[in-house]
Amino acid sequence: MFSFFKKKPKVEPAPLPETPVAAPATPAALPPAAAPVTAVVAPPTVTPTAAVEVAPTATAETEAEIVAAPVAAEQKRSWLSRLRTGLSKTSSNLTTLFVGAKIDEDLYEELESALLVSDAGVEATHFLLNALKKKVKEDKLTEAPQVKAALRTLLIDLLTPLQKPLVLDQHQPLVMMIAGVNGAGKTTTIGKLAKHLQAHNQSVLLAAGDTFRAAAREQLTIWGERNNVTVIAQESGDPAAVAFDAVHSAQARGINVVMVDTAGRLPTQLHLMDELKKIKRVIGKGMATAPHEVLLVIDGNTGQNALTQVKVFDDALGLTGLVITKLDGTAKGGVLAAIATNRAIPVYFIGVGEQIEDLQPFDATEFVDALLT
């Protein structure tokens, strides 16, 4: 597997090695990737109800996957190939513009259309076009490949602020609250993240806080069994109470990471958004500094609607990171430029398929090269 997370050594920060270490790094205070999440003052009292713990079922296959060796160069190339395939529609629209093109207003107009079609949005498109025209003039670029290379540099510069690692070992336990609309791949993403966390020697506990969608608890339980992870769940009840129980259980057991699944909802469903805020407040009652990460899972096929989701969920919860899934098929990819321009929240992971290895850390250079090759 790739290296997904950043840990803090005792003296100076250093990137996580390619090969997982035998034991987690010593906890240390690190600057958060985004604005810190704080508990709302005077949250309502919630008494946790009896929770049902779904016991994990270990299998030889699961154990083998957890201790798998770091990904080989061939597998890395496979991931990049899948990413290019997923973004091929946007890539073809952009790259064909520069084949034998003259550097004139017609080229800029076609580029503007291609960026808008890719869901980059008006603001990001105008920013990129203005910056590109300025660079062409200042550097006296006259050939289409030179202009394409200049666009690549501008896109990488725009997206690089989104490229930040998910930091481990700064809290014990690290409490992560996972949100997203129905169909974004939220529960599946939680299962994949659990596997990757285990590969970095992190013990994991899952909280089945999605009591709204039918079979959501069962789906999370299946992932728990696959990963040999305990799931805190209830047959029915208050999702905030489930989250509260999970935090206290993790503290008692010395678990490294708690991931709280929440019910998928549209940003326009105000009563459900209020429930999300309640879950966050109640998690803060269970652990004063929690939740430490509030992640939003976004379907890469939703285009500009994804930007709307980011804004609304960020305003309600204070997002610390994003996971963008389903960057294959009809995905356009330009929405990352829109996010970078309007609400530069770190993109921790991107996904192109259903397999564990199809969820990888976001790398701005790799992503832009997939768009322009």
Structural summary, described in words:
The protein has 373 residues and is an alpha/beta fold. The protein has two domains: 73-162, Up-down Bundle (Four Helix Bundle (Hemerythrin (Met), subunit A)), CATH 1.20.120.140; 174-364, P-loop containing nucleotide triphosphate hydrolases (Rossmann fold, 3-Layer(aba) Sandwich). Helix content is 45%, strand content 13%. It has 13 helices and eleven strands. The chain has helices at residues 60-66, 73-86, 88-95, 105-117, 121-139, 144-159, 186-199, 216-227, 239-253, 270-286, 304-317, 335-342, 364-372; strands spanning 5-6, 52-54, 166-167, 174-179, 204-209, 230-233, 257-262, 293-299, 321-325, 347-351, 359-361. The strands form two sheets. The protein has a nine-stranded mixed β-sheet, with helices on both faces. α12 links the parallel β9 and β10. α4 (105-117) packs antiparallel against α5, α5 (121-139) crosses α12 (335-342) and α11 (304-317) runs parallel beside α12 (335-342). It comes from Collimonas arenae. GTP binds at residues 180-187, 261-265, 325-328. Belongs to the GTP-binding SRP family. FtsY subfamily. Residues 346-359 form the SRP54-type proteins GTP-binding domain.
- The number of distinct structural domains comes to 2
**SSE-based structural type:** alpha/beta
Might you state the CATH topology name of the largest domain? Rossmann fold
The number of strands is 11
Radius of gyration: 21 Å
Could you give me the name of the CATH homologous superfamily of the largest domain? P-loop containing nucleotide triphosphate hydrolases
Question: Percent range for helical residues?
Answer: 40-55%
Secondary-structure arrangement, i.e. CATH architecture of the largest domain: 3-Layer(aba) Sandwich
| CATH level-1 class of the largest domain | Alpha Beta
